[in-house]
Design brief:
259 residues; alpha/beta; Rossmann fold; 9-stranded mixed sheet; two-stranded antiparallel ribbon; 22% strand
């Protein structure tokens, strides 16, 4: 039986200062393939090449990855400032309507870091441009120096709502996670349920209330060593189960039978 397809939202990068590429981290590919058990497919995040309607038909689920550019503040009604950092308006144009369509259809997605923030904005929420500048908040950014292992090391606790979706899935009300982000949720979007917080009050785990499909999203990076980490592994396995269920449901529709 063919594995279902997970579209991994790529990011625009530049090699050798001149060559533009749409790329995705190998750790995302490995997590989707080896832990979720799905076919990983890198998506160019640019409406000049793909449409949301096409992606919804080609893919069974989506991994909304992290990325250096931030969601443009105009998407939540604020003016651009230097603190908001770099942007990728093409990715905004794909991911935000994609999230809304998936919520409506029940098509599964898993949001990670920037993807977590995209889900909040897509549902009408807003973001702080720089968490570490807020009173009482810690620096959630990736350490500027060190090895990959040091940058993705577990750095703080996340406390979940007892009995909530994350608590039940992970079998714990508190876990340790890495942290490599600068922005974070300011105002939760409509139907956004925050179920996990860092010690400084920063939201870290969300889902969409009453959504018919898988909408779990986290502010940290569970794709790092996903097959080994006791927090990452069940998240990606649950996501894979949701994608398989969606694919099986679509396989019996008239459209799929005649495809």
């Amino acid at each position: 039986m063919t594995r279902p397809v997970v579209g991994i939202i790529g990011n625009m990068s530049v090699l050798n200062e001149t060559y533009h590429v749409h790329a995705g981290g190998v750790m995302n590919t490995e997590a989707v393939s080896k832990v979720a058990g799905c076919i990983p497919l890198i998506i160019p995040p640019d409406p000049h090449y793909v449409s949301v309607a096409e992606l919804l038909e080609v893919c069974d689920g989506f991994l909304l990855t992290g990325g250096r550019p931030n969601v443009h503040p105009s998407e939540y009604g604020e003016e651009e400032t230097a603190a908001h950092g770099a942007f990728d308006r093409c990715r905004d144009a794909i991911t935000l309507p994609l999230v809304r369509a998936c919520v409506e259809r029940g098509q599964p997605f898993f949001g990670v870091c920037r993807g977590f923030q995209e889900v909040n904005v897509a549902m009408g929420g807003s973001l702080y441009p720089e968490i570490r500048d807020l009173p009482g908040r810690m620096n959630h950014r990736m350490p500027p120096d060190g090895t990959l292992e040091e940058k993705f090391a577990l750095r703080h606790k996340v406390t979940f709502t007892p009995g909530g979706v994350f608590s039940r899935l992970l079998g714990a009300d508190e876990v340790m996670t890495n942290t490599l982000h600068g922005q974070g949720i300011k105002v939760p979007g409509a139907r956004i349920v925050i179920e996990g917080y860092a010690p400084d009050g920063t939201p870290e785990a969300i889902h969409v209330k009453d959504a018919p499909g898988f909408t779990l999203s986290v502010q940290w990076h569970p794709e790092y060593r996903a097959s080994e980490d006791p927090v990452s592994r069940p998240l990606f396995r649950a996501f894979g189960d949701a994608v398989r269920a969606w694919a099986e449901g679509r396989a019996v529709t008239p459209a799929r039978k005649t495809a």
